[in-house]
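Re: weekly structure request thread

Next one in the queue (246 aa):
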Amino acid sequence: MRWPWDKSESEVDHSYLGEVITNRVALSRPFLETNPDRYLALTDAIIEEKLWEAAAGFTLEPDMIVTIAANAAVPIMGLDMWAYRTVRSIIVHPTTTVTKGTRRGPSESVASDAEVHIIGQASPYSGPLSLSWDAVAASSNAPHHGQNVVIHEFAHKIDMTDGEADGVPPLRRDSLQAWEDLLDREYRRSNSRESDWDLRAYAWTNKAEFFAVATESFFTTPEHLRQAKPDLFRGLCDFYCAQSPN
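Done, posted below.
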């Protein structure tokens, strides 16, 4: 890969990062205004510390890597790189991939073998994280739709840091109990509520998807989530250690 900066240097060119991020990552604007040094440093670390691979003969350009890394930096502005310690490699596909095989879903109590179109996938433990570039580009430019495939898949990796995809992020003691109680109220229940429709239906596939979809909403449409599900918003705010960007 030909980078637009000298890879022998200790740091990437932050002016180049800023230009790409400004043009391609809508969620970056508040961070570039209020804390650009930290935001660019985290983006830089994700670029440098992770292994980047292209799938299916795809040409993975530097600006694509910067776009993905800058979106991934958003959730860890209040955490740090430890949250992504199980992310070793990121595989980028040109477009949606199709897979078959028996799997859990569309709810936890049933299984399905229907063909699935995948725009992103996070493997457990230190397995790779896969993304479809067309979905990345679309969601990076339009956060008002409440979706961001990069944040969604990296949220899965945060969830998996204890080895399980169970909707419970890495927390300790009282904070862990508080989140499990919140999950009981918001997910583990038999009766739906009108506010549930403020998260897309995919959130109710299982607890792991609930956490990932809720994280997407927290960072892409925070005010909407705050009004619809204030307890969930506060719980995510407590975990991510910072206010959402809007």
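The chain has one domain: 14-240. The CA atoms of residues 17 and 161 lie 28 Å apart.
Next request, please.
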